[in-house]
Amino acid sequence: MLLGAALPLIDFFIVNVALPSIDRELGAGPTMLELVVAGYGVAYAVLLVLGGRLGDMAGRRRLFLVGMAAFGLTSLACGLAPEAGTLVAARVAQGASAALMLPQVLATIHATTTGRRRARALSLYGATAGLSMVAGQILGGVLVSADIAGTGWRAVFLVNVPVALAGLALAARTVPETRSERPAPVDGPGTVLLALSLAALLMPLTEGRAAGWPLWTWVSLAAFPFLAGAFWAVERRADRQGRTPLVPPSLFALTGLRRGLGMVLPFSIGFGGFMFVMAVALQQGLRLSPVDAGIALVPMAVAFFAASLMGPRLVGRHGSRIVTVGGLIQAAGLALLITAALRDGDGLGFWQLLPGMALAGFGQGLQIPVLFRIVLADVPGEQAGVGAGVMVTTQQSSLALGVATLGTLFLALSGPMGMRDALAATLGVQLAAVGLTVVMSLRLPRTVR
Fold this sequence. Notes:
Blueprint: H1 2-14, H2 19-26, H3 29-58, H4 60-79, H5 84-112, H6 115-146, H7 155-158, H8 160-174, H9 188-211, H10 215-240, H11 255-285, H12 290-295, H13 298-318, H14 321-344, H15 350-376, H16 384-417, H17 419-441
Helix pairs in contact: 1-5, 1-6, 3-4, 3-5, 3-9, 3-16, 4-5, 4-8, 5-6, 5-16, 6-13, 6-15, 9-10, 9-16, 11-15, 11-16, 11-17, 13-15, 14-15, 14-17, 16-17
């Protein structure tokens, strides 16, 4: 199941270091390159809650297997794409496949474990999710530079095919079938309005800069609050009438879920933007190779993994205050990175980045697994798929939003300010967001069940 959790997140980030190679070979241009990233992210985000609901109805093991098989096939289509338009279409289909697969992971954990086993499983899920996001860019750099059998950037997609086959074989043998005892029908109006709301927000933010901010981007952004309001009104009416909405408003009465999601939002925005900005700054600004750009992230990955392993024991002693401490450590790491960028400029490399990367990764590793546990702790078992879908949708939408907002800020500043000052300024914005999460963490339930 954790393999199924890793693949979609790796593929969200693995493509960052391959974008220059895709541009050179396919003549994609800025707009198509943005769509290679955004098409996957938007399709993934808008369908996640629906994927969780379908798993509750039809069986989570069955949907996991279907999603894993589709993910392998769409990855093959990405790797064989002859031109940019085909690659974008395959990436959209790949995102939809991930949305079928990923919600079943948390829902199955929630439905088949209790007590300490559930706490350990959720900690492992959080560690896998965070590590996958960092490892994606490292793996992408290695694969692009290795140019296995002349595949170049295509290897970042083709590598998924044997992994998906292994995942199917393992899941067929070991994953139990679970479903909701009282499955609800699909909420058609809610599904459509949620998809329209997320698309109206994410598409113009990810495409606007490359397209020159045409009229449709502003119309779409203006429509977002109305679509989101209509979605919430439809969901509340369905709840009052005794029907089962796509996202039950009653879920947000759970204190842990509401406050935990409030922290997942800024944390994931910062994380998504950070990974994208570092990929661009290291390759296009400092002219590092994809491998060297990936290696620069290794200290972050190692520190994140170490903190994730320590987390369950620390949470047992200190509760949710571990999230606060993690935020302060992450802030110290970002401050070191800003100092290194301003001090070393064009000489920025692995050793200059190492202290900041390690501290930032360690702080993140103390936060995200605990937040996942807090969000899902009080979700009833029959709503496991919906709860998982809501949490992962928040995370995925925020990652895409981080790429769109912090990425756009960095690229807009890099022209007039230069790469060094633009990187420092963008990291400064993220540092402010981390300060917000530290303050918000003080309101989390003290005890983590």
